[in-house]
């Protein structure tokens, strides 16, 4: 149960996303859909807050945070690129995928420049 606190909030986010995907209003009416959206927003804000306040105590923990961040970034950008490719081939490109990829890449570049100038 050591990692329960690390797993609980992301699990709530994943469950909320699955419920929000609700194709054709299959398992949830619209009013409940809005409640799940509010739960998702609150959980995401809490998740972001905990991630931001996370502190490493030594060099090894810093390295682990950097490795995890790199894996997360590469996984998310790869999924966005795959989504862009699939939707482009089907001629239904959703600009939110492009927007998310551009913002993620810009955040990575700006974050890298910022950390190099601050350290």
From TrEMBL:
<feature type="transmembrane region" description="Helical">
    <location>
        <begin position="7"/>
        <end position="26"/>
    </location>
</feature>
<feature type="transmembrane region" description="Helical">
    <location>
        <begin position="95"/>
        <end position="114"/>
    </location>
</feature>
<keyword id="KW-1133">Transmembrane helix</keyword>
<feature type="transmembrane region" description="Helical">
    <location>
        <begin position="71"/>
        <end position="89"/>
    </location>
</feature>
<keyword id="KW-0812">Transmembrane</keyword>
<protein>
    <recommendedName>
        <fullName>DUF2178 domain-containing protein</fullName>
    </recommendedName>
</protein>
<keyword id="KW-0472">Membrane</keyword>
<feature type="transmembrane region" description="Helical">
    <location>
        <begin position="32"/>
        <end position="51"/>
    </location>
</feature>
């Amino acid at each position: 149960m050591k990692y329960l606190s690390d797993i609980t909030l992301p699990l709530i986010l994943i469950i909320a996303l699955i419920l929000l995907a609700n194709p054709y209003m299959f398992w949830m009416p619209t009013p409940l859909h809005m409640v799940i959206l509010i739960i998702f927003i609150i959980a995401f804000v809490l998740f972001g807050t905990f991630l931001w306040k996370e502190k490493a105590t030594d060099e090894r923990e810093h390295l682990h945070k950097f490795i995890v961040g790199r894996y997360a970034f590469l996984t998310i950008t790869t999924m966005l690129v795959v989504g862009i490719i699939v939707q482009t081939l089907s001629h239904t490109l959703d600009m939110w995928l492009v927007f998310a990829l551009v913002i993620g890449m810009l955040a990575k570049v700006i974050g890298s420049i910022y950390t190099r100038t601050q350290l």
